[in-house]
Amino acid sequence: MREYILRRVIQLIPTLILISIVSFTIIQLPPGDYVTTYVANLAAAGEELSEEEIAALEEHYGLNQPGYIQYIKWITNFVQGDMGLSFYWDRPVNRLIGERLMLTMIMSFFTLLFVYAMAIPIGIYSAVRQYSLADYVFTFIGFIGLATPNFLLALIFMYIGIKVFGASAGGLFSTEYLDADWSVAKVWDMLKHMWLPVVIVGTAGTAGTIRVMRATTLDEIGRPYVETARSKGLREGRLTMKYPVRVALNPILSTIGWRLPEIVSGTVLVALVLNLPTTGPLLWRALMSQDLYLAASMIMILSTLTLIGTLISDILLAWVDPRIRYGERGTT
Amino acid sequence: MDTLLEVRDLQTHFFMAEGVAKAVDSTTFSIRRGQVLGVVGESGCGKSVTARSIMRMVRPPGHTVDGEILYTRPDEDGQSTVVDLLQLPATGTEMRAIRGGEIAMIFQEPRASLSPVHKVGDQITENILLHQPVTQSEAEDIAIDMLQQVHIPLAEQRMNAFAHQLSGGMCQRVMIAMALSCHPSLLIADEPTTALDVTTEAQILELMQGLQAELNMAIMFITHDLGVVADMADEVAVMYLGKIVERGAAADIFRDPKHPYTIALLESLPRMDQKREWLQTIRGVVPDPYSTLNGCPFHPRCADFIAGVCDEIVPQPITLEDNREVRCLLYTEHAHQESSPVAEETSHQ
């Protein structure tokens, strides 16, 4: 097992190098760079820049150098933990991402909890009582949840919030805490604001996970080993949890890792609509303004987390499923 | 006669969108203590559903709608009481105590019948802890002892094995160890050797015979293979479309089959003492379970079909000499209207 993990970690390195090159290149692919966008924006506002000023800007941002030099500079600093400067915000990427990343992670963590706490019991219930009234009701709600875009749900909630409660549903903090330092009161204020985006972002995930949980449980419930367990005289409830559900949880566990990149990117549209200080809107703006280092760094973080997430999934799966754990050695 | 289990007029139907499938349709038989009953028939004739009805493990849309399953339970004081299993709640305490404790079951696909994510040792101890007042470590000792009894080498190490690490034959041995760990008075074996190769099949059958004699337990042995039954069974019940068409002592049935279906089944067996180019087959297939055939359910495939009789009258079980029972119109007075060789033979006796 230890050897397996070590081997997988070493395999990550070439993949990461490749990803860093690709993500850097892709951001540079559209014609022009940050300075061109900047100049165009100024021109639209009626302000002209001279050739010298443009050249000075390019010099300032290091955009006059060839692409591979820019890449090498960026990646060397990145490995050392310095992600460069954001052109648009004129601030170090590290500081820009820092707090947003933490808030995003907290929010995503609660979303994940919400999704699993709702979806797993409902999925099991729907499978055990297949075609019951409750199963149909959950299925109906689930499909609505799947089919409704999250940002639309966010808009509806905001509308209700303003119409019914006279309060804006956006943001993660009340105005008085916006720029305040972190304190117990601020955390409490954040938690009070957080449930709404958690429910909105979690709806689609819950609906999807219910379907997965229901389908895999149904699949397992009819297996011969469940019948064996029943033939021992086990109680039905105990039997369901110990055998089919235990096996049906494997695909859920094995996809936990894939949610890591979601934890960082957040859900961009919902975050934009609800005006959340998470990383989603930041990435969106960085891509729009060709903010090279900010965008590349964020994509790099996302890719790294995707890889780590996949690794965690594989390790988890090997841990819970002996068929995979011992699979390498073959049957005895 | 020391009857252990008596099934009377059992009816288990499946209520499907296509109609009602009468998987088990008024089946009657009994099993004596320590006796092996072979239940034979083609796929889909209701053998497995009969077994699951006894275990009260029929899942919706299947329901046991009528009948009696009289099971003789030993009391603490050496006396015995008769309970009708169909009167007990299927998931209630009493039925669960019987299931796994007094009536155990093994299945067709041994590897799939063991949980893929639990150690085989834990699966055996679970059964012991459910039915016996022992501690965890005592249960483990019993489990190891059982694994040795079914001739699994390195039993102690095998406790930690998972199903996928064992061969099919080994898995079936584990299943047998698990089923017998609480010394049931009846073991229901639902095609336990069908998924195994012939050599393993022979080993498992030998093992079951040995344990059966040793533990004085009754076995209801379900199979589609008459050859397997010939070796093991004291009595044989032949099923066709949810009904038992013939039953009697195994030796009698093999020597002198009465029902045309049994005759056809026996003729379709390959034999060492006859050189034949082709195996005999039974023409046609088992009708689909939703069909409502008039008369005898076997008449469309029967070699001795009597027009106007077999397709109109539903045959009732007839008791012949030597405690044999056959469900065929050839053995009733209806048959005398026509000249049938089998009927004549019977009337002479």
Write a concise keyword list for the protein shown above:
heterodimer; A: 332 residues; mainly alpha; MetI-like fold; two-stranded antiparallel ribbon; 15 helices; globular; B: 349 residues; alpha/beta; eight-stranded mixed beta sheet; four-stranded antiparallel beta sheet; 11 helices
CATH class of the domain at 95-279 in chain A: Mainly Alpha
Q: Please state how the strands of the largest beta sheet of chain B are arranged side by side.
A: 6-7-8-3-9-10-12-11
Mean pLDDT across all amino acids of chain A: 82
Computed over alpha carbons, the radius of gyration of chain B is: 21 Å
- What is the makeup of the main sheet of chain A? 2 strands, antiparallel
One letter per element, helices H and strands E, the order of chain A comes to: HHHHEEHHHHHHHHHHH
Identify the CATH architecture of the domain at 95-279 in chain A: Orthogonal Bundle
Count of discrete alpha- or pi-helical segments spanning 4 or more residues of chain A? 15
